[in-house]
Amino acid sequence: MSKWRCNVCGYVYEGEKPPAECPICGVGPEEFSSVGETTVATARPIPAKRWKCTVCDYVHVGETPPDVCPLCGAGSDAFVLLSDDAQSLTAEAIAAAGLGTARSALNKVSYGLYIITSVNAGQLNGQCCNTAFQLTDQPTRLAVCLNKENLTHEYIMASAVFAISMLSTNQLDMVRHFGYQSGRNVNKFKDIEYIAGKNGCPILKNGVAYVEGTILPEKSVDVGTHTLFIGDVTAGRMIVDEDPLTYHLYRENRAK
Ligand SMILES: Cc1cc2nc3c(=O)[nH]c(=O)nc-3n(C[C@H](O)[C@H](O)[C@H](O)COP(=O)(O)O)c2cc1C
Protein backbone atom coordinates (compact mmCIF):
# COMPACT_ATOMS: atom_id res chain seq x y z
CA MET A 1 0.00 0.00 0.00
CA SER A 2 1.35 3.45 -0.95
CA LYS A 3 1.40 6.51 1.32
CA TRP A 4 0.53 10.01 0.09
CA ARG A 5 1.17 13.26 1.98
CA CYS A 6 -0.87 16.42 1.35
CA ASN A 7 1.54 19.25 0.41
CA VAL A 8 -0.80 21.81 1.92
CA CYS A 9 -1.72 20.48 5.36
CA GLY A 10 0.52 17.42 5.87
CA TYR A 11 -2.35 14.91 6.09
CA VAL A 12 -1.15 11.37 5.18
CA TYR A 13 -3.39 9.05 3.19
CA GLU A 14 -2.93 5.33 2.57
CA GLY A 15 -4.04 3.89 -0.79
CA GLU A 16 -3.01 2.91 -4.29
CA LYS A 17 -3.54 6.51 -5.50
CA PRO A 18 -4.06 9.86 -3.70
CA PRO A 19 -7.61 10.70 -2.58
CA ALA A 20 -9.90 12.79 -4.79
CA GLU A 21 -9.99 15.43 -2.07
CA CYS A 22 -7.99 15.98 1.11
CA PRO A 23 -10.45 15.42 3.98
CA ILE A 24 -8.63 18.02 6.09
CA CYS A 25 -8.01 20.98 3.75
CA GLY A 26 -9.98 20.04 0.63
CA VAL A 27 -7.24 20.21 -2.04
CA GLY A 28 -7.28 17.78 -4.99
CA PRO A 29 -5.05 14.73 -5.74
CA GLU A 30 -2.47 16.89 -7.58
CA GLU A 31 -1.42 18.33 -4.20
CA PHE A 32 -0.44 14.90 -2.80
CA SER A 33 3.15 13.58 -2.95
CA SER A 34 4.13 9.98 -2.58
CA VAL A 35 5.92 9.27 0.69
CA GLY A 36 6.75 5.63 -0.08
CA GLU A 37 5.73 2.39 1.53
CA THR A 38 6.95 2.91 5.08
CA THR A 39 4.47 2.73 7.91
CA VAL A 40 3.07 6.16 8.56
CA ALA A 41 -0.01 6.87 10.60
CA THR A 42 -2.88 7.34 8.15
CA ALA A 43 -4.95 9.53 10.38
CA ARG A 44 -4.40 11.80 13.31
CA PRO A 45 -5.03 9.87 16.55
CA ILE A 46 -8.38 11.30 17.40
CA PRO A 47 -10.98 9.84 19.73
CA ALA A 48 -13.38 7.40 18.13
CA LYS A 49 -16.76 8.39 19.52
CA ARG A 50 -18.98 10.65 17.46
CA TRP A 51 -21.82 12.60 19.06
CA LYS A 52 -24.58 14.22 17.02
CA CYS A 53 -26.48 17.28 18.22
CA THR A 54 -30.16 16.46 17.80
CA VAL A 55 -30.96 20.18 17.47
CA CYS A 56 -28.68 21.19 14.58
CA ASP A 57 -26.94 17.94 13.43
CA TYR A 58 -23.46 19.20 14.40
CA VAL A 59 -21.13 16.21 14.92
CA HIS A 60 -18.64 16.34 17.80
CA VAL A 61 -15.73 13.89 18.04
CA GLY A 62 -14.54 13.04 21.55
CA GLU A 63 -14.89 10.66 24.46
CA THR A 64 -17.87 12.62 25.79
CA PRO A 65 -20.36 15.02 24.18
CA PRO A 66 -19.47 18.72 24.43
CA ASP A 67 -20.89 20.79 27.31
CA VAL A 68 -22.57 22.96 24.76
CA CYS A 69 -23.06 22.69 21.03
CA PRO A 70 -20.74 25.22 19.34
CA LEU A 71 -23.28 25.78 16.58
CA CYS A 72 -26.65 26.09 18.28
CA GLY A 73 -25.83 26.32 21.99
CA ALA A 74 -27.77 23.17 22.99
CA GLY A 75 -26.52 21.40 26.13
CA SER A 76 -24.70 18.05 26.30
CA ASP A 77 -27.96 16.17 26.86
CA ALA A 78 -29.02 17.09 23.31
CA PHE A 79 -26.23 14.86 21.92
CA VAL A 80 -26.66 11.22 20.91
CA LEU A 81 -23.84 8.74 20.39
CA LEU A 82 -23.42 7.85 16.71
CA SER A 83 -20.79 5.15 16.97
CA ASP A 84 -18.22 3.83 19.39
CA ASP A 85 -16.49 1.14 17.39
CA ALA A 86 -13.38 2.59 15.71
CA GLN A 87 -10.13 3.26 17.52
CA SER A 88 -8.82 5.59 14.83
CA LEU A 89 -10.89 6.99 12.02
CA THR A 90 -10.35 6.44 8.33
CA ALA A 91 -10.10 9.40 5.96
CA GLU A 92 -13.73 8.84 4.98
CA ALA A 93 -14.84 8.79 8.60
CA ILE A 94 -12.93 11.97 9.37
CA ALA A 95 -14.71 13.69 6.49
CA ALA A 96 -18.03 12.24 7.66
CA ALA A 97 -17.41 13.52 11.17
CA GLY A 98 -17.11 17.02 9.80
CA LEU A 99 -13.46 17.70 10.60
CA GLY A 100 -12.70 18.62 6.99
CA THR A 101 -15.79 20.73 6.46
CA ALA A 102 -16.80 24.37 6.59
CA ARG A 103 -18.43 23.73 9.97
CA SER A 104 -15.09 22.89 11.56
CA ALA A 105 -13.56 25.96 9.88
CA LEU A 106 -16.22 28.11 11.56
CA ASN A 107 -14.82 27.04 14.95
CA LYS A 108 -11.90 29.30 14.06
CA VAL A 109 -14.05 32.46 13.86
CA SER A 110 -13.20 34.72 16.82
CA TYR A 111 -15.90 35.99 19.19
CA GLY A 112 -16.30 37.74 22.50
CA LEU A 113 -18.43 36.24 25.25
CA TYR A 114 -21.15 38.15 27.07
CA ILE A 115 -24.16 37.93 29.34
CA ILE A 116 -27.12 39.66 27.73
CA THR A 117 -29.99 40.43 30.06
CA SER A 118 -33.46 41.88 29.90
CA VAL A 119 -36.49 42.57 32.04
CA ASN A 120 -40.13 41.86 31.38
CA ALA A 121 -42.95 42.91 33.73
CA GLY A 122 -40.48 43.06 36.62
CA GLN A 123 -38.99 39.62 35.89
CA LEU A 124 -35.24 39.44 35.20
CA ASN A 125 -33.43 37.01 32.94
CA GLY A 126 -30.23 36.71 30.97
CA GLN A 127 -28.25 34.31 28.84
CA CYS A 128 -24.73 33.79 27.62
CA CYS A 129 -24.03 34.88 24.04
CA ASN A 130 -21.06 35.08 21.71
CA THR A 131 -22.86 36.88 18.90
CA ALA A 132 -22.84 40.50 20.12
CA PHE A 133 -20.83 43.00 18.10
CA GLN A 134 -20.69 46.71 17.38
CA LEU A 135 -22.13 47.87 14.06
CA THR A 136 -21.60 51.65 13.98
CA ASP A 137 -20.07 54.36 16.13
CA GLN A 138 -22.48 57.17 15.27
CA PRO A 139 -24.99 56.20 16.44
CA THR A 140 -23.45 53.64 18.81
CA ARG A 141 -25.31 50.65 17.44
CA LEU A 142 -24.80 46.95 17.95
CA ALA A 143 -26.25 43.57 17.00
CA VAL A 144 -26.83 40.33 18.87
CA CYS A 145 -28.26 37.08 17.52
CA LEU A 146 -30.55 35.15 19.87
CA ASN A 147 -32.42 31.88 19.54
CA LYS A 148 -36.19 32.39 19.45
CA GLU A 149 -36.64 29.55 21.98
CA ASN A 150 -34.70 31.42 24.67
CA LEU A 151 -36.48 33.21 27.50
CA THR A 152 -34.12 36.15 27.03
CA HIS A 153 -35.36 36.45 23.43
CA GLU A 154 -38.93 36.54 24.73
CA TYR A 155 -38.12 39.27 27.26
CA ILE A 156 -36.27 41.42 24.73
CA MET A 157 -39.11 41.08 22.22
CA ALA A 158 -41.55 42.22 24.90
CA SER A 159 -39.62 45.08 26.52
CA ALA A 160 -37.18 46.14 23.75
CA VAL A 161 -34.48 46.82 26.37
CA PHE A 162 -31.28 44.93 27.14
CA ALA A 163 -27.94 45.14 28.90
CA ILE A 164 -24.74 43.36 27.94
CA SER A 165 -22.10 42.53 30.57
CA MET A 166 -18.59 41.82 29.31
CA LEU A 167 -17.13 39.03 31.44
CA SER A 168 -13.69 38.89 33.02
CA THR A 169 -11.37 35.98 32.26
CA ASN A 170 -12.14 34.35 35.63
CA GLN A 171 -15.90 34.22 35.06
CA LEU A 172 -16.29 30.87 33.31
CA ASP A 173 -18.80 29.98 36.01
CA MET A 174 -21.06 32.75 34.67
CA VAL A 175 -20.92 31.16 31.20
CA ARG A 176 -22.15 27.90 32.66
CA HIS A 177 -24.75 29.58 34.87
CA PHE A 178 -26.28 31.71 32.11
CA GLY A 179 -25.50 29.50 29.12
CA TYR A 180 -26.28 25.96 30.21
CA GLN A 181 -29.73 26.45 31.72
CA SER A 182 -32.85 28.36 30.81
CA GLY A 183 -34.66 30.94 32.89
CA ARG A 184 -37.76 28.92 32.07
CA ASN A 185 -36.55 26.33 34.61
CA VAL A 186 -34.58 28.38 37.13
CA ASN A 187 -34.34 31.94 38.48
CA LYS A 188 -30.85 32.74 37.22
CA PHE A 189 -30.55 35.93 39.27
CA LYS A 190 -31.42 34.35 42.63
CA ASP A 191 -27.83 34.23 43.95
CA ILE A 192 -26.11 36.55 41.47
CA GLU A 193 -24.68 39.95 42.42
CA TYR A 194 -26.03 42.58 40.06
CA ILE A 195 -27.05 46.19 39.81
CA ALA A 196 -30.10 47.50 37.97
CA GLY A 197 -29.26 49.51 34.89
CA LYS A 198 -30.98 52.78 34.00
CA ASN A 199 -33.33 50.82 31.74
CA GLY A 200 -34.01 48.25 34.49
CA CYS A 201 -31.94 45.42 33.02
CA PRO A 202 -29.59 43.61 35.40
CA ILE A 203 -25.84 44.16 35.05
CA LEU A 204 -23.31 41.72 36.53
CA LYS A 205 -21.30 43.34 39.34
CA ASN A 206 -18.08 41.47 38.62
CA GLY A 207 -17.89 41.96 34.87
CA VAL A 208 -15.26 44.20 33.24
CA ALA A 209 -17.73 46.50 31.45
CA TYR A 210 -21.34 46.84 30.38
CA VAL A 211 -23.63 48.62 27.98
CA GLU A 212 -27.35 49.17 28.10
CA GLY A 213 -29.48 49.57 25.02
CA THR A 214 -32.82 49.83 23.27
CA ILE A 215 -33.85 47.54 20.43
CA LEU A 216 -34.76 48.98 17.04
CA PRO A 217 -37.56 46.58 15.99
CA GLU A 218 -37.73 47.92 12.43
CA LYS A 219 -34.03 47.19 11.91
CA SER A 220 -33.93 43.78 13.61
CA VAL A 221 -33.99 40.75 11.30
CA ASP A 222 -35.69 37.37 11.48
CA VAL A 223 -32.94 34.91 10.50
CA GLY A 224 -34.89 31.67 10.93
CA THR A 225 -34.20 29.94 14.25
CA HIS A 226 -32.79 33.23 15.61
CA THR A 227 -33.52 36.94 15.60
CA LEU A 228 -30.67 39.30 14.80
CA PHE A 229 -31.53 42.10 17.19
CA ILE A 230 -30.21 45.56 16.31
CA GLY A 231 -30.09 48.11 19.12
CA ASP A 232 -28.69 51.50 20.07
CA VAL A 233 -26.52 51.90 23.16
CA THR A 234 -28.08 54.22 25.74
CA ALA A 235 -25.57 53.92 28.62
CA GLY A 236 -22.51 51.98 29.72
CA ARG A 237 -19.10 52.10 31.33
CA MET A 238 -15.93 50.17 31.97
CA ILE A 239 -15.95 48.66 35.47
CA VAL A 240 -12.33 47.54 35.55
CA ASP A 241 -9.63 47.90 32.88
CA GLU A 242 -8.87 44.17 32.43
CA ASP A 243 -8.94 41.78 29.49
CA PRO A 244 -12.43 40.44 28.72
CA LEU A 245 -13.29 36.77 28.39
CA THR A 246 -13.31 35.53 24.79
CA TYR A 247 -15.08 32.59 23.22
CA HIS A 248 -11.70 31.06 22.40
CA LEU A 249 -10.55 31.28 26.04
CA TYR A 250 -13.81 29.69 27.13
CA ARG A 251 -13.39 26.78 24.70
CA GLU A 252 -9.81 26.21 25.88
CA ASN A 253 -10.79 26.16 29.55
CA ARG A 254 -14.40 25.03 29.73
CA ALA A 255 -13.57 21.55 31.03
CA LYS A 256 -11.63 22.96 33.99
C1 LIG B 1 -20.44 29.88 25.13
C2 LIG B 1 -21.90 30.02 24.79
C3 LIG B 1 -22.28 30.90 23.80
C4 LIG B 1 -23.63 31.04 23.47
N1 LIG B 1 -24.01 31.95 22.52
C5 LIG B 1 -25.32 32.09 22.20
C6 LIG B 1 -25.72 33.07 21.24
O1 LIG B 1 -24.92 33.84 20.71
N2 LIG B 1 -27.05 33.14 20.93
C7 LIG B 1 -27.99 32.32 21.51
O2 LIG B 1 -29.17 32.45 21.21
N3 LIG B 1 -27.62 31.39 22.45
C8 LIG B 1 -26.31 31.27 22.80
N4 LIG B 1 -25.94 30.38 23.78
C9 LIG B 1 -26.97 29.52 24.39
C10 LIG B 1 -27.79 30.21 25.49
O3 LIG B 1 -26.95 30.91 26.39
C11 LIG B 1 -28.59 29.14 26.25
O4 LIG B 1 -29.44 28.49 25.34
C12 LIG B 1 -29.34 29.67 27.44
O5 LIG B 1 -29.69 28.58 28.26
C13 LIG B 1 -30.63 30.42 27.10
O6 LIG B 1 -31.18 30.87 28.32
P1 LIG B 1 -32.64 31.50 28.49
O7 LIG B 1 -33.65 30.52 27.96
O8 LIG B 1 -32.75 31.70 29.97
O9 LIG B 1 -32.66 32.79 27.74
C14 LIG B 1 -24.60 30.26 24.15
C15 LIG B 1 -24.21 29.39 25.17
C16 LIG B 1 -22.87 29.27 25.49
C17 LIG B 1 -22.48 28.34 26.59
UniProtKB/TrEMBL annotation:
> Which SMART domains would you find in this protein's record?
Flavin_Reduct
| Essential cofactor(s) | Fe(3+)
Q: Which PROSITE patterns match?
A: RUBREDOXIN_LIKE (PS50903)
The highest taxon in the source lineage is Bacteria
Keywords attached to this entry:
Oxidoreductase
Keyword Oxidoreductase in the entry? The reply is: yes
Coiled-coil annotation: which residues? none
Q: Which SUPFAM superfamilies match?
A: FMN-binding split barrel (SSF50475), Rubredoxin-like (SSF57802)
Which Gene Ontology molecular function entries are recorded, alphabetically? FMN binding; iron ion binding; riboflavin reductase (NADPH) activity
Q: Does the keyword Acyltransferase apply?
A: no
Q: Where is the Rubredoxin-like domain?
A: 1-35, 48-82
Q: Which InterPro entries match?
A: Flavin_Rdtase-like_dom, NADH-dep_flavin_reductase, Rubredoxin-like_dom, RUBY_RBDX, Split_barrel_FMN-bd
Recorded protein name is High molecular weight rubredoxin
Cite the source lineage. Answer: Bacteria, Bacillati, Bacillota, Negativicutes, Selenomonadales
